[in-house]
Amino acid sequence: MIEIRNVTKAYGDVVALDGASMSVDEGATVGLVGTNGAGKTTLFRLLVGHATPDDGTVRVAGREPTEGPALRERVGFVPEDAAFDPRLTGREVLELHARLRGVPGDDRAERVERVLATVGLADAADRRVEGYSNGMTQRLAVGTALVRRPAVLLLDEPTAALDPRGVEALHRVVDRIRERTSTTIVVSSHVLDEVDRLCERVVVLDDGRVQARGSVADLATDAADAVEVRLRPVDGDARRAAHDAVRDAIADAPSDGAVESRGCTLVVECHRAVAFDVVAAARDAAALDGFEVEEPGLEDAFAAAVDDAAMVDDPAVATTNGGDRA
Ligand SMILES: Nc1ncnc2c1ncn2[C@@H]1O[C@H](COP(=O)(O)OP(=O)(O)OP(=O)(O)O)[C@@H](O)[C@H]1O
Q1: Cβ < 6 A, ligand 1 pocket
Q2: The whole model's pTM is what?
Q3: 137 close to 84: Cβ distance less than 8 angstroms
């Protein structure tokens, strides 16, 4: 449904996308995760035909960004900060969008009614938008995208401005869309917990490049296996001795590890299976004031994915950087 190959996009000197590639199967719900400036919005602008790539190819539901309006017939884009004429009711907003999108008059009322139910606004349909909460406005925005029955729905940071109740209500809307339609959904977010709640798969974008992809469960499993060991050698000599010993201890570990000095502390990122060996090696080699072992959560898994460009096999979300499809 979505095929992006080796795409670059720059704004003057700023490279927003730098050889990104990914593909998404029909009906999948995929999280697009990235720090500020990672390139998420730029990617969405290409997917909805508001911009064209400088290089590489983008195909969405069989269309390309150069086809602008024809592409937008198939793609619904919900921006982070949608706003509507406050004097209209929710129903009037949806009817207007249905008319603008060419939904035939006979179908319009029923289509709008269904969408109101899907976005949880049936009871508020005849209230003016000026009285809507942020969460209701956001759900109405999703509704405006749904009236045209898009093949692909793009949600750009859909809960960024919402309180916890608004977040949960929006999440239920996404659940209903998944249950009732075969729409392919891409949700951009800073928050891995949200991606975990909504999506079975995730693409991690950083510096305009796809750094990791796979199931949220795989990323979480990676996180569960990773620990951070903090060693406090008694002095500089001890720190150097411990550093060398620890480096040797993690050299044969089942996954990559790293040793870093932070002030007087040695910080070791490693697989949990070698945490004991790391501490033992450091204590054999040097005097320590103490040590701690910490297990990172999902957010750290995301950060680790960005740092390490870790790749996880997943057939439904195939991504590469500047190379062939995985
Ligand atoms: N119109 C523009 N002109 C110049 N630079 C831009 C423009 N739009 C985006 N950029 C830059 O391109 C890079 C990617 O921006 P983009 O908005 O795609 O990232 P993002 O992941 O959506 O970030 P955020 O989460 O902050 O919205 C950033 O360095 C940004 O400053």
Answers
A1: 11, 14, 16, 34, 36-42
A2: 0.74
A3: yes
